[in-house]
């Protein structure tokens, strides 16, 4: 790690089970809490994902979903051979990366402003920024449609001002519209992890840097920025993960040319009813995401972020 | 640097008016579409375009005369109440486990509790659809509710966990020294102390569920939740103003809840 941002005074100290005073009076409580919680996590999170993986090796959907079957790799082979799937996966990951990068880049100055410049009003400014995020996601996407459509606010506004004759139709129903909409939707959310990290920076570090004759720019580049990296990475991931699996926003503003990898998964489950192939595609998407997350968590160090 | 004069200490100094300007510019961009929705929900024109025609509350009246829409809102409320209670109870149990006990597999449990944040919704939707099909459970509000409990669980766990980690364990030691049993200590000391966080977790879980559609689209049966209904109706241009007025009403309700949650958490 870089410069330590001060230890956490609230770190768990006396939390563990008391050392070797058997039998622990808390044992029953522990079991009463742990058994249902772990059972729920297993049944609702682990088991469904395992079923999904199992389904992806199933030759077809004949018979009961749980009935024994001879595992086959044919769906993975089919995916491997179909270039357009990989292309779409690449495009989706690329779109998610652009969205996450731009949203993070735009959120950083906002978080910096809130952490260091907003003064006593910081709380109010933060809430103002978050209100749009708390507004219904669909509603915001709908609002973008109103803004960008051929009969939308921008076009009708421009033409009633006499600035354009023909409506601009490049604004909606393509990949750019999806990317712009998603960036717009995620910027407030991306501010939060960055703000959390900036808020933990010990102000004395700036004093120290100033004592050592660093210019404000050097202070920013060599103190603030390195300490903000976990927050920036967290913001990137928190936008990237939901975005890479998007399928609704492309349906709403992407049109036919704007679909993402999530859309073909949805198609195989809803329209085409080829569940095993859809499951294989889901497994590939999950694996891709988790690999990226593991790489990302190396950078983020979530314990530092939470202050645990 | 060369002057050798020591820069003023403290925060990096220059006022950077650009930062403030950027903040307000972003705020404007973020609010513009929402403000437009408000405006159009009172506009008498049936298409959502300029110029505005005139003020009307017709859309709000029509909204209350559309049973399918009202039904979907009721469904959403049912799902949100059920799933948020489930997520909060489970999240609180997990937060107590993770903050007050050392046990083997602790990291695994923590990882599983936040896993739903790391799995794209479409994948989770697929996995749950497979699970429910295997179990022979028909798609219904119940299946949507289960899905929403899962995605709200990480938020609930983290909110309560943050409070429990920040609190002092001495109080609990004192309670037990005074003869309280451990379950008694949890009930009389730990849970009351975490109550603001628990309420905040519940409200957060509620809003997560109420707004959710990626899972609901896969898992809802004939009873649609409001976002699912909304997506289905977006195709029909003539119903758009009514949908917008409904969404504006709900937005006001959600915001009220969130502001309350925020107040409680800061207490």
At a glance:
By secondary structure, chain A is an all-alpha fold.
Shape field of chain A: globular
How many beta-strand elements of chain B? 0
Q: Indicate the radius of gyration of chain B in whole angstroms.
A: 24 Å
- What proportion of the residues of chain A is helical, as a percent range? over 70%
Oligomer designation? heterodimer
Helical fraction of chain B: over 70%
Strand tally of chain A is 0
Shape descriptor of chain B reads: globular
**Count of discrete alpha- or pi-helical segments spanning 4 or more residues of chain A:** 13
Distance between the termini of chain A: 16 Å
Task: Give the SSE order of chain B as H and E letters.
Answer: HHHHHHHHHHH
Largest sheet of chain A: none
The greatest interface between two protein chains, and residues involved on each side, is: A-B, 109 and 100 residues
Strand content of chain A: under 5%
| Main sheet: strands, sense, barrel of chain B | none
Could you state the order of secondary-structure elements of chain A as H and E? HHHHHHHHHHHHH
Rg of chain A, Cα atoms, Å: 25 Å
Question: In words, what does this structure look like?
Answer:
The complex is a heterodimer of chains A (308) and B (267). Chain A has helices at 27-56, 74-81, 83-117, 122-134, 137-148, 153-160, 175-200, 203-211, 216-244, 248-254, 261-270, 275-300, 302-306. In chain A, 71% of the residues lie in helices and 0% in strands. Chain A is mostly helical. The longest helix of chain A has 35 residues, at 83-117. Chain A is built from 13 helices and no strands. Chain B is mainly alpha-helical. Chain B contains eleven helices and no strands. Mean pLDDT of chain B is 83; it is low at 1-10. The chains are: A mainly alpha (308), B mainly alpha (267). Chains A and B meet through helix 1, helix 3, helix 4, helix 5 and helix 6 of A and helix 1, helix 3, helix 4, helix 5 and helix 6 of B.
Strands, helices and their partners?
The complex is a heterodimer of chains A (308) and B (267).
Chain A: H1 27-56, H2 74-81, H3 83-117, H4 122-134, H5 137-148, H6 153-160, H7 175-200, H8 203-211, H9 216-244, H10 248-254, H11 261-270, H12 275-300, H13 302-306
Helix pairs in contact in A: 1-12, 2-12, 3-7, 3-9, 4-7, 7-9, 7-10, 8-9, 9-12, 11-12
Chain B: H1 17-41, H2 58-63, H3 67-100, H4 106-118, H5 121-135, H6 141-166, H7 170-177, H8 182-211, H9 214-219, H10 226-233, H11 240-266
Helix pairs in contact in B: 1-11, 3-4, 3-6, 3-8, 3-10, 4-6, 6-8, 7-8, 8-11
């Amino acid at each position: 790690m870089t410069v330590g941002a001060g230890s956490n005074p609230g770190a768990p100290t006396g939390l563990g089970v008391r050392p070797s005073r058997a039998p622990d009076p808390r044992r029953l409580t522990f079991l009463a809490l742990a058994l249902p919680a772990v059972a729920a996590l297993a049944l609702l999170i682990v088991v469904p994902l395992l079923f999904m993986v199992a389904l992806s090796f199933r030759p077809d959907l004949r018979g009961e979903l749980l009935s024994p079957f001879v595992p086959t790799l044919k769906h993975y082979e089919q995916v491997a051979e179909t270039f357009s799937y990989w292309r779409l996966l690449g495009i989706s990951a690329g779109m998610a990366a652009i969205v996450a990068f731009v949203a993070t880049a735009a959120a950083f100055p906002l978080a910096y402003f809130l952490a260091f410049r907003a003064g006593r009003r910081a709380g109010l400014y933060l809430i103002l920024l978050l209100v749009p995020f708390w507004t219904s996601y669909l509603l915001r996407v709908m609002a973008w449609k109103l803004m960008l459509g051929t009969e939308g606010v921008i076009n009708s506004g421009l033409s009633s001002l006499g600035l354009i004759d023909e409506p601009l139709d490049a604004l909606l129903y393509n990949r750019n519209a999806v990317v712009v909409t998603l960036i717009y939707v995620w910027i407030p959310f991306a501010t939060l992890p960055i703000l959390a990290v900036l808020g933990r920076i010990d102000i004395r570090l700036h004093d120290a840097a100033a004592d050592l004759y660093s210019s404000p720019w050097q202070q920013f580049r060599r103190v603030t920025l390195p300490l903000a990296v976990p927050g920036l990475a967290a913001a990137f991931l928190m936008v990237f993960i939901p975005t890479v699996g998007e399928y609704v926003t492309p349906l709403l503003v992407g049109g036919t040319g704007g679909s993402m990898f999530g859309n073909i998964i949805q198609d195989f489950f809803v329209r085409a009813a080829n569940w095993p192939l859809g499951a294989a595609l889901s497994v590939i998407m999950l694996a891709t995401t988790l690999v990226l997350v593991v790489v990302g968590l190396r950078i983020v160090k979530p314990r530092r972020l939470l202050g645990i | 640097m060369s002057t050798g004069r020591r820069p003023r200490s403290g925060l990096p100094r220059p006022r950077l008016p650009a930062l403030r300007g950027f903040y307000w510019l972003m705020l404007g961009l973020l609010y513009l579409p929402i403000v437009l929705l408000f405006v159009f929900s009172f506009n008498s024109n049936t298409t959502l375009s300029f110029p505005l025609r005139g003020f009307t509350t017709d859309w709000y009246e029509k909204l209350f005369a559309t049973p399918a829409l009202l039904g979907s809102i009721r469904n959403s409320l049912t799902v949100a109440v059920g799933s948020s209670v489930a997520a909060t109870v489970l999240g609180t149990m997990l937060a107590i486990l993770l903050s007050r006990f050392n046990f083997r597999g602790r990291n695994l449990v923590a990882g599983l509790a936040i896993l739903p944040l790391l799995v794209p919704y479409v994948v989770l939707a697929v996995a749950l659809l497979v699970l429910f099909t295997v179990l022979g459970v028909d798609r219904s509000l119940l299946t949507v509710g289960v899905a929403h409990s899962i995605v709200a669980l990480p938020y609930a766990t983290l909110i309560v966990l943050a409070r429990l980690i920040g609190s002092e364990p001495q109080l609990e030691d004192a309670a037990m020294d005074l003869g309280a049993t451990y379950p008694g200590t949890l009930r009389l000391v730990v849970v009351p102390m975490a109550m603001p966080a628990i309420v905040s977790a519940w409200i957060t879980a509620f809003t997560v569920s109420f707004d959710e559609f990626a899972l609901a689209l896969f898992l809802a049966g004939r009873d649609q939740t409001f976002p699912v209904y909304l997506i289905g109706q977006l195709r029909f241009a003539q119903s758009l103003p009514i949908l917008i007025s409904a969404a504006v009403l709900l937005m006001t309700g959600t915001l009220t809840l969130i502001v309350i949650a925020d107040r409680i958490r800061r207490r």
